Every structure is written in structure tokens, then in C-alpha cells.
Amino acid sequence: MCKTPCPIRAAPNPATEESDVERRIAFPGLFAANTHYPEVAHIVASPSTFLLKPHRQTTDIHHPFTMPSAVKLYAAIDDNDGGVFNHWSFFIDGPQNEGKLVFQAMGSAGRFRFESKNADSRLYPNLIELFYVAEIDAARIKDVQVIAENLPIPDSTPGWNCQDYVLDLFKALERDGLVDKDDDGYRARYSELWRKQDGLA
């Protein structure tokens, strides 16, 4: 015998409600499905509306994309298709495709020009090495792009080429404070990159 009063179920009003039997006859599939889905605790049926009520509340958890706080800067070293020197370019490894940028000096002695494009240096078929040099705050990518576009190309300097452009760009980032020139790791990597130049004795 129940120690607490049992709830009394009111009889359906024939004028306004259908009985459970009538609902099960009219919609057998819905009631049968309930036996296979224990998470559905109540089914309220009417001639035109069905409302499924879960037995517990659930919370949707969203994982929005977040921009990384830093992006890496590389020197991409490519085979120059039989040229005397390997080709170098400056690569920003941004978080998404639109954030992956390549800056480079294209042409030949006395006729070099700046070129910028949205690309991933890892996908270049002639890539020999992707050499990590530094990293910057992701919010400063645009600043790097402006510096790269305005970096002087000294066509009158004998021997200046695409490799010098990459080295000069890192030095420009130092001057503008985007790269910490006093960081020991950065200085060691820059020195190693400098020694990778073709033609050095």
C-alpha cells in the first residue's frame, strides 16, 4: 500500500479529449516507437499536434573557431629549376587558407619586382625546405604585409636577389618591433638562415 497519496488521473472529457486507446489506435507507430526510445518520457497527442518531451534537459555545447594568438613565419626554399641559386620566399603560415601568404622578389638582377600571393608554401612541388624563423601576433599579419609591400628592392646593388629580400624583410620586422630581435632563439635561427644563402664562401 502506498504511504503517500497516489495521483488521481482525471477521466478524459469525451467532448474535448481522446482516450489513450483512441490515440494508440490512431497513431500506433508513434506509441510503439516510444518503447524503443527511453529518452522520450511523455507523448502528448492531439488530432493535429505531437510534442515529444525529453526526460532530462540537455545543453548544446558549441565550439566556435578561435583565432590562434600567434602565427609562424618561415623562409621557403625552393629549387629554382636549374637556376644558379635556390629561390627564397617569405611565408606566413596563417590559421586558414586566406591567412597563408607568400611574399617574394621575382625577376633577375636589375629587374626584380615584389610579388604577393595567397598560397601555402608546403604545397609547392619544388619546395626543398621550410625553415622556421619567428612568430608574430596573429593580429599583426596585415602589418607584415604592408612592410613587405613597401620594402625597397635595391636593383642597383650587385648580387642582390630573392634571398636577400627574405633576410631584409625579417630585419624590417625587427625594426618595427614585430619580431623580438633580442630573443636568443630568433637570433640563432636568423643566423642559420643567413648561412644558407647560396654563393657564400
Automatic annotation (TrEMBL):
It comes from the Eukaryota. This is Uncharacterized protein. It comes from Uncinocarpus reesii (strain UAMH 1704).
